[in-house]
Amino acid sequence: MREKFQWLSAEAGLDAERAALERVFSGQEEAGLLFWRPLQPALVMPRRLSRLPGFAVAEADCRALGWPIALRDTGGEPVPQSPAVLNVALCYAVPLDDNEQTRIDTAYQRLCQPLCDWLEAFGLDAGLGEVDGAFCDGRYNVNIAGRKLVGTAQRWRRRHSDGRYVVLAHGAILMENQRDAMVEVVNAFYRACDLPAVCRASSHVALEEHLPQPWQQLDALAGHFQRHLASHGLQLPA
């Protein structure tokens, strides 16, 4: 990678991910890896949530807390984005020998295994699974000692030219401890929309709570991705 990461607004980061997916979809690249860090806080969520009763009130409440809402193409639930977060976007054309029945799980593994290997290299207890009280919870969270560090999501397209699937697998890593403010804004959104979900700061963990100066370890993370993908016949651009 030429740069450790790009500083982008939430909207520009989402646009950069769409562009990375488009390069693979159009055949310009076989695979791509993007690291980006938000310039300002935002609460990013699926477009479908903008149709909820109470969304306008929720949007105003979140903005008042310093977290304006941005809408994304993937599913899931609200996710706080801020300069405390590193976003990892992995795009690739699914190899022809991949099992179509398990391609979604395989894509999560290709995203999560390099992250787990990276954390374990620092002696951290990394694993995958749901965490009660975590925002945007899922079975492919990357956790440290049972607390959520990385949230994950996917977006898929299928090429008409060759029928191959193209995927964007995304991970949001909490690098710096902003757990309290993040949980506060997610819960504020839920309350305004009269939804029952309640998130807890104690269900999350920031990497800096276990690893000093985590932003200095991104070259190592990129290396884990390059080696893992190469072992599956996927080459990242130089």
UniProtKB/TrEMBL annotation:
SUPFAM superfamilies: Class II aaRS and biotin synthetases (SSF55681)
PROSITE patterns, A to Z: BPL_LPL_CATALYTIC (PS51733)
Residue ranges of every copy of the BPL/LPL catalytic domain listed in the record: 27-219
Pfam families: LplA-B_cat (PF21948)
Gene3D superfamilies documented for this protein: Bira Bifunctional Protein, Domain 2 (3.30.930.10)
UniProt xrefs under PANTHER family: OCTANOYL-[GCVH]:PROTEIN N-OCTANOYLTRANSFERASE (PTHR43679:SF2), OCTANOYLTRANSFERASE LIPM-RELATED (PTHR43679)
Protein name, as recorded: BPL/LPL catalytic domain-containing protein
Species per Swiss-Prot/TrEMBL record: Pseudomonas panipatensis
